[in-house]
Amino acid sequence: MYELFILSKLLDGNYSAYKLKFVLEMVLGANRKMSFGVLYPLLDKLEKNQFVEMSDELDRRGKKLVRITDAGRERFQVLMREPVKVCAHLDDIYQFKLLSLRFVDATLQKSIISDYRAQKIAEKADYETHIHDLIEKHLGYTFYDQALQNYHLQLNLIETKLAWIDEIQDYYEKEN
Questions:
Q1: 8 A C-beta contact, residue 50 and residue 71
Q2: In CATH, what class is 2-98?
Q3: What are the tens digits of pLDDT across the range 82-114?
Q4: Where does the record place the Transcription regulator PadR N-terminal domain (predicted)?
Q5: Is the Cβ–Cβ distance between 106 and 126 less than 8 Å?
Q6: How far apart are CA 74 and CA 84, in angstroms?
Q7: Where are the domains of the chain?
Q8: Using an 8 Å Cβ cutoff, are 28 and 1 in contact?
């Protein structure tokens, strides 16, 4: 997951590890942190696989910059084409992909947008089924109100994500 993010950021230009960490935390949100204990081993792995290299160039703080290689550009394209498996980080992976659409062709852009929309629509249908089952089978139980509130929260979050997907799609339709 973070490999995709790092490679996409490096397509914008060279970054120090500190700046990559800062930008990743900004994208993930206020309550999500990236430790250097996770970042540096990942950068080492990417360098070992020749997807990135450490530049002799320094940033204004005197930190070495990381640069993407041609193999890293190819790896980025492979990661963008990979289907996203249902997992706890599904939304993060799609967020990274959607924020990186400018680096892929229009066909792949449409495919990623369509896949994420389909995933969110399926998730919405699942929550609607859960609500129906909750009302039919568990009305009056002590957990009922909290479960119903949670399901409604999840539906609202999905609606927000679907609206964001629509915004991204509109933007790229105008660009292409």
A1: yes
A2: mainly alpha
A3: 999 999 999 999 999 999 999 999 999 999 999
A4: 12-77
A5: no
A6: 18
A7: 2-98, 105-175
A8: no
